[in-house]
Each structure stands twice: as structure tokens, then as C-alpha cells.
Fold this sequence. Notes:
The chain is of the alpha+beta class.
Amino acid sequence: MGINISIGARSAAGYTLLELMVVISIVGFMSLIAVPGMQDSMRRNAKESEILDLMSAIALARSEAVSQSRLVSICRSTNGAQCADPSSGANWNAGWIIFTDAGTAGTVDAALGDSALRVGQASDTGSVITLHKSNNLAFTKDFVQFRRDGSINTAEAAAGAYFKFCDSTNSAADARAILVANTGRSVPSTADADGIHNRLDGANLTCP
């Protein structure tokens, strides 16, 4: 007695055109959901990396002031050689420099022996990075100077300072900061119960 093996249309011909179209539609729909989430994740990671980079630079400026027993500053710079003129804007995302600061505070005076210790490159994240006093007013000059004991020597930061990071959304929920105490120690901002990160005086960060 022979065995009759029947092969169905789907097994013989593979998937039908309709089934393939359904699968493609599902994949496309899932991509629409996944891509924005991936972009948000990449944006957050880039911002966190940017914050850690500047925070490590602040810590380096402080430690160099202590180890070299001399004044050391970090300032906003657009050319990697001199501190930027305050009139050129206040966005630190164009770069910064750490330098020994024996002459005029906040100025790289090569004739007096000032020299760059580290140069920070321009950011490509689109963040707007601004330096503020503890009472939320902006600095009139974009630099922070550290004494030989590591504390802040800048008059505008007598009560501490903070660097605020705002992205293109200008959303307070996305705002972040580096908080620098008058002792010179820096920490990343944290959020309280409302989910918004706080500035140095404990109030919510706002953008812009």
C-alpha cells in the first residue's frame, strides 16, 4: 500500500505575496517605533559623555592647581589658545582650555609664563553650555580659577558655580548641570521628586 504525501500550496510555493507584504509592513511599523527611541538614547548618551568630559576637565584644573601649587584656570575658548571674549557669547560648546594663570586672571599671558595644560574640542551635540553663579546669574567673564588649595578663586563664584547643559528641546526635563562648590569640588546635578534636575541653590534647572 503506497503512501500519498500531499504538499500544500504554501509549502510548495513559499510565502504568498500578501503574506510578504504583511511582514514588510510590520517590520516597517516596528522601525518607526524603534528609531526615535534609539535616537533619543544616542542623544542622551552623547550629552552624558559631554558632561563627564567637562567635569573631568574641571577636576583636572583643580588638581593641577594643587599639585603645581599655583593658580590654574579653565575658560571658554573658541580657538584653543586664548579665552573667548565675553562679548562673543556664553556657549562653552565651542571649546575650552585649562591653563596656568599667573598674570591677569582669566587671560593666557604667555609672557608671564602661562601655558595651556589641556584643550577641549568643540562639541557636536548641539548642547548650549553656560556658566552660572550660585544665584543663577550668568558670569560676566567665562572662566573659573582655582587656588593652590583647590578652592575657587573667582570672585563671581565665591558661593560656587554651575555649568548648565540645555539641548535643542529647551525642556527643563532634559536640562543637566555640573555643580561646583566653592571648595572646587564638582558633582553632576541630580533630580528630586519632580524629576527635574536642580541647580546649585536647589531650585529647578530651566532652559534656555
